User: Fold these one by one.
Assistant:
Number 1:
Amino acid sequence: MRYLPLTDADRQEMLSVIGSASVDDLFVDVPVQARLPGTIVGLPDHASELAVERHMAKLARQNLSAGEAPFFLGAGAYRHHVPASVDHLIQRGEFLTAYTPYQPEIAQGTLQVLFEFQTQVARLLGCDVANASMYDGSTACWEAIGMARRITKRGKALLSSGLHPHYVSVAKTMAKFTGDALVHEAPKLDAATDIDALVASIDKDTSCVVVQYPDILGRIADLTPLANAAHEAGALLVAVVTEPVALGAIAAPGHMGADIVVGEGQSLGVGLQFGGPYLGLFGCKQKYVRQMPGRLCGETVDAAGQRGFVLTLSTREQHIRREKATSNICTNSGLCALAFSIHMTLLGEKGLRELATLNHALAVEAADRLAKVPGVRLLNDAFFNEFTLILSKDARDVVRNLADRGVLGGVSLGRLFPDAADIGNGLVVAVTETVTAEDVETFAKALEEELA
Amino acid sequence: MTMLKEGRPTAPQAVAEEHVAPATATGNRALMLEEPLIFEIGSADTTGVDFAEVPKVKSRFGNLARKDAIGLPGLSEQETVRHYTRLSRQNYAIDLGLFPLGSCTMKHNPRLNEKVARMPGFADLHPLAPQSTVQGALAVIHELAQWLVTLTGMHSVAMSPKAGAHGELCGLLAIRAALEARGDARSVVLVPESAHGTNPATAAFCGYKVEDIPATPDGRVDLEALKSRLGPDVAAVMITNPNTCGLFERDMKTISDAVHAAGAFVYCDGANFNAIVGRVRPGDLGVDAMHINLHKTFSTPHGGGGPGSGPVVLSQALAPFAPLPFVEKQGDRFVLVEEESVEDHHGGSFGRMVAFHGQMGMFTRALAYILSHGADGLRQVSGDAVLNANYILRSLSDVLDAPFGGSGPCMHEALFSDKGLAEGFTTLDIAKGLIDEGFHPMTMYFPLVVHGAMLVEPTETESKAALDQFIMALRSLAERAKAGDEALKGAPYHAPRRRLDETLAARKPVLVWTEPELAEAAE
């Protein structure tokens, strides 16, 4: 109980000020039948710092961490090297232990970071504006569909087959309750994206088309025709980016006409963390800013005329508009946004472009090497740092067996799309700057033995 | 001790009053350093990182290579460290002092939790890694889940919601799925006036019509009004308990029984669970679903706005509808139940709420905190949280109006109003005055049921000495506001910024930085 500073003498003194005999007496409003007489049965009592650390370390050792193995997993979460100063800086107590910046005079640190973050994200995505972050990419994607519904007053969203299946699942869950109609099919093992099919499907009921870039199979394609077709029909184009490092090398969705661009910011600064906390990116055109969900930070001046920053346009938000708010979101991912922003500042334009180029070059080398393994075919020619291999066997089994050999060799399409039996031989492989030539060779040899 | 060149110690000399605080050429004030934006000090050619040489390959971008400048300034590592260190010093944080935000619960964040969360065996795991390689991580989720279920006396828990409001969504979706499973289409959710704004927003997001339930004069849900509104169209009632007035809803069990008798479900906003943890189990009060803000009750850092984490405990009636994925223990193995296994034994699930498995990084922190406290410590947590709040309530009720102070103890937070301040003085003035006194202000103007509300939550991790200093400061401010001290209206005077113009920010929103010449041209 080392985190509780009161002594028994303090407690007695305070109780006498209050005029109560005991702490238990302060719970007088709880009906007697609902009060537990002592500590809850079946749970252990407090443990020392050393004991807790030992227990947690033991559990941590039961995992095979990404750094301990040749590692090729992506599909919405990417392993990148995070410079040491990022984690060092986010652990400064003034960042780590601050609350939502409701009192701007003593929260300029967080607010200026959010303003810088918004600008970095808007520029990266090719948007006019960006918000101060959301929970993650998948929930940001759903929020974008909801925003398109509010703007267009239409309730049918076309989801590309290349959209991350978990993002599709999240949207389907929510749509059951909001009544949006979602149109989606699982992908085919085909190098071409479904952009032509999407263009053909847009009609007068379509609120938006949601397309991922690069998509779940690692494919990339020009989104301009899709944006044009959507706009002609009065619909919006929502683009989803799960690997923001890609935008250091390939054209930004906003520059290809996307109205809303959302993404997963985990790649920069945040780390894998077994799925969370992650960082939702959300940008859009200026004209839609008042329909945007989440927190926004804006520039202003103080009573002495000095520049400062505040949370703004809060009339869109739940604490003012309650049931009419643009979303129910209260928390954002402030600390993850800080990590992203610091990492981006360390990189700068030059570093981001180098990082992206390096990722791509290593991925190209790896793709060519792995495609030489007997029983392996490279699906897509155009990609950034992730591509799909078609194996001669079900990739689910191959991935499990590779794990037993100590190789974390990609994500099987069978795991991602359990209902689409015909793509079970697909393996999505990601290669970042953390992968060495030796890792690729180990992976290739293990794959060769597995497919033999 | 500073030394002069001659090696003698320095001592202050008498200085005339007007020379005490001259303006500085830089705008800096010793340790208070002004910091420009990265866009004003960085450049496209500067970087703080080094990469390995890029292998020569023919790129496979098709025709999509990014050609134009992105517009991202870089800083060297040294400049980066300085930039963010300087900015950090313009923030108040729980590590600096008391942060008495009622309804938000800012308590000490132990550093052991940070150390644990950064163990590579937790931090460096991919969410889609083969299950055989992440058994320890699944064990953490399972162990934390067991604690949450036992502490709340509920049937099961959905771990994936990403924050409190996301947890509300989870609870309401489970309720809606349960109603639909029995072919019962209901359209209304009842929300008391004192609820968090997220409650009605969430209900509306789930497609429900929201109706308010009034509060009684003693700050609790009006039981008769609630009972009379219950009917076949009501899907759920959302109640916060302890509520946002800092009071325990004495009639909770009666409310639950009435709601259940009407065929509806009880959602409890568990944001204030730290007031009762180890002493009261919401399951015993008839709650069907409740989110737990891990950052509030179990001390995961809030990081200037997040991340949060909002697991939702569920009653037996709602458990079959819990979202995917979740962790099950099968023999001595842990299994992550995903879509692929759902047909077999979890057909009722309402689906997936988020791409992966929730806030793993928060789970490790919360579990470390829970194990450190243990069952005995958590009971002491609620005891001390309530003791500290009542100490503040009683120590200030002679200078500040406490609207419900007469009706017995409060729970974990003390509520005051602006009644009795001099004409023209508001809660805002007291809050901004607190900034000058070195404290973060309390929650202002919430709950809405009290005029000029000031909601103070000290939490259990404050010492008596810290509380006494805070009481002294707030007492002094209350006295100044009652005496009509005009200087208070200009506060804060000593913060990095004076009062900021929020109206201007909303009227002419500037949300991204633009090069000055471009910004000028646009005007």
Number 2:
Amino acid sequence: MKRITSFGILASTVLGFASPVLAQTVFVSTQLRPIEEATVVRQDLLKDAGKVDYVVEEPPQFAVRMEAEAKAGKHTVSLIGALHGELSPLADKDQLEPLDNLAKKLAADGMPQSLLDLGKLGKSIQQYIPWMQATYVMAAKKEALQYLPKGADINAITYDQLIEWGKNMQQATGQPQIGFPAGPKGLMARYFQGYFYPSFTGGVVRTFKNADAAAGWEKLKALWTYVNPNSTNYDFMQEPLAAGEVMVAWDHVARLKNAISASPDDYVVFPSPAGPKGRGYMPVLAGLSIPKGAPDAAGATKIIETLTTQKIQLLTASKVGFFPTLNVQLPPDLDKGVALLAGAVTKTQAAKDAVISLLPVGLGDKGGEFNKVYMDSFQLIVLQNQPVGDVLAKQGAVMAKLMTDTKAPCWAPDAKSDGACPVQ
Amino acid sequence: MTQNRPWIPYLLILPSVVFLGLLFIVPLVQTIWLAVSDDGAPSPANMQRMVTDINFMQSVRNTFLLTIVVVPVQIAIALAMGTMVAKIGRGRETILWIWTIPLGISDLAAGLVWLSILQNTGYFNSLLFSLGVISRQASWLSYQTPVALFIAIAVAEIWRGTAIVMVIIVAGLNQVPKEFKEAAEIFGAGPWTRFWKITLPLIRPALQSALILRTVLAFEVFAVVYALGGRNFPVLVGEAYNWQNQNQNYSVAAAYAVLIMVISLAATLVYLKAFKVDPERLP
């Protein structure tokens, strides 16, 4: 009897300690990682979503963690928040729960069917629920506008005008005033894939080494003479903008937000420049997904429902600068900086010459090496001044091998392919 | 007692041997296999990929250049510091304590400290500006100023890594018997002769340890370079990190790791040969 009693005490103690831990739904996200943003998620966005343990992971570690949990068969993560391209390898390995019921409900609540379809990742069942979206824009200090070339419309700027603008600013201030996030953690590779290549070649992979690409690189070299050389150290452009190191910058909206929200009256925000083939633009879509074997799928569903309510979607926009996936009007009392960014996003989407470039898909864990091809070309051509043709031929071969190894088919704006996307 | 049971010493070191075997030898073998195989079969593909990468030659050159410049300077400074404190009576401990402060700071923190000094809006530019030397922010850490960047990294590394060399050398200097110097003084040897003929040969084991430790660490330099130079100054460990973390190619990262290990082992062997230490002076 005594033994049973002590066993009972022990068991209840263990359960007493264990149950609060079990009740936490683990939500791992590659988005909203900086400490300020993660705090907003924990304190504001997930306030009504029950007990959630919001964990952030860098994209490479995220892939490793999901792979490890799937291989070990021991799941701790109940909900994933990640980019379209980061969720796609998981869907390919059949590691995500179907979310069709949720998708139906959200379609009725006003989530555009086109966005929901992206969440199917090319399959017949819903793999993820679109969570929030963003893109990349340019921002400039208002004092830079006086150097804008005559007749240039800031909302429809071209590469030639940007180069002239950079030249004017350099002559007036004695310093190169344009900045790009080409540092170790900067998103410069996305500039090449979503903006530079589509603008100059109308493609990303197929056109990698053609004559249009070579001409584009020559233009970029011309532009780079007016780009601050510290750009290869910049990760987030909001810092050099706020510190006055550059007057004009290109970056992800969330990586410009702090500078612009801090003094919205000092900035203008506008679409990226257009090249001969149009105005390249990369929509960024983050989604929510439940991994197969999730310990708390019910809790995860509840979090998805919370995060996709109109109220929380608008709160997300005003607090962290990612825009709603629900079809909602942004309120008039929105943070002024976010309103500026939202305006530029709308102008980009509405631009007549916009060339949409999707995030790379189907590359699996070779996404990093795909980025490297663009960054290596940039380093060799622009920073080391090597002949464009030779570099593109060599890097084109590397890219062709990458595409055949991964068998990734072409994505927009490249024309569709049967099998691996060819480098022509 | 040990003589009756000769297995006792082996038993005592067994846990550490097992520990090393599990946590060092096994991953080491795995890393080497990862570097020299492709799809489960032996292949030089990863090594080739590493050698033909655009940053490979530069990272080898930068790493060696940094080692060649930093290590001798650190040894010289540490010898000077060690000899200086040897003359001090009161306050010696305090001075040593202050000198070893950089030891307590992590590599990355040290890099960030120097970044705050040397970046465009940093203290160094502010100072130059207030003295009227420069009229606007100058950049010292960009790809267009490789010499300034190299000097900045070397200075930061010297600042950060000299303390450990000094600790080893001070320990070595403490072991040099006073009688030798006094005898030399009586026979009329000057300070330079005493240092060259007595002190230096007697601290040989300490010098050897310091050189091996510092050189191996110099080949593994990363955090300071990453903080100050980012992508602008490729080094071997930095490339291993990029391949592992950003490019997600563990095999090429393993190839870099193996290369760094081979270089470190080679350097250690060179020092062991070059600084022969009498067997009776070994611990």
